Amino acid sequence: MTSGFRALHPITLFLFYGGLLLSGMLLFHPVFLLTGIVLLIVLISIQKHAGTIVRMLPLYLLIGIAIVVINPLISHRGRHILFYFMDQPITLESVLYGVTMLLSLTLILLTSLSYNYNVTTDKFMYLFARLVPQSALVVMMALRFVPLLRRRLTQITLVQRTRGISVHEGSLTKRLKDGMTLVKVLLVWSLEEALQSADSMKARGYGTTKRTTYVVHRMDRRDRWLTGCLSVLIIGIAIGSALGWGRAVIYPRMQSMVFGVQDWILYICFCLYLLIPVIVEGKEWLSWKYSK
């Protein structure tokens, strides 16, 4: 499937994910955030990357439990006291605020997962390498730093296990020593490859002249139409948020979370915004399935 959401122009993709991150920060309402999470999971599942969510689920649960538990313990604002813990009041407002923070963080994490799959390295460099080549390279390297180190550490662990070096076996002292050995090998490997990459780029004259692009991304009619729709929806969401729509007022006094007319208008715009990639990807998935 080469004509799905991932095949859109880099400007369209970057606009979508930038607007989604902005919406996740501005629309602080459980209904908005939960809707965004569900539709993002649908998009990731259609693109056959649901396994990534399952692998990251323990981390998400750990972060979520920490937020939901810690916020009521450190914030005692609110009028509705549920119970007392160590002579400290646990309020309904603090619990709801922690849950809403959890939903907002989950939406941002899922946005990052989908972004890493759809906005590839060549698309990112296509957008920013001509303007700020050095800064674009640093940002790209920073984005791939953690996944790259995880893959290398997995390879190092498998190789060193044949030599009896493992952090899962032996006494605590042995596991600590073996862990330091694995980290040392990882750092040496990463620094050596970084020096080789720097020498290679310097020899090729990177950054000395205006950068050219090997992959040419042309914006067709569909890209222009979707970019226009996304832009209009982003402006509408930003204006609605500036007017106070789509926000759950929890502190200092919790207000009703029932939608008004303005909230429904903003909610429809938000749903349409998130449904655009789902429709594009779903249409391609159906075409691929029934063409066999």
UniProtKB/TrEMBL annotation:
TM helices/strands, residue ranges: 12-45, 57-74, 95-115, 127-146, 225-244, 264-282
Could you tell me the membrane topology recorded for this protein?
A: Multi-pass membrane protein
Keywords on this record?
Answer: Membrane, Transmembrane, Transmembrane helix
Q: Where in the cell is it found?
A: Membrane
Organism's domain of life?
A: Bacteria
Q: Which Pfam families does this entry report, sorted A to Z? A: CbiQ
Its main subcellular localisation, reduced to a broad class, is membrane
What is the protein's name according to its record?
Answer: Energy-coupling factor transporter transmembrane component T
Q: What is the lineage of its organism?
A: Bacteria, Bacillati, Bacillota, Bacilli, Bacillales
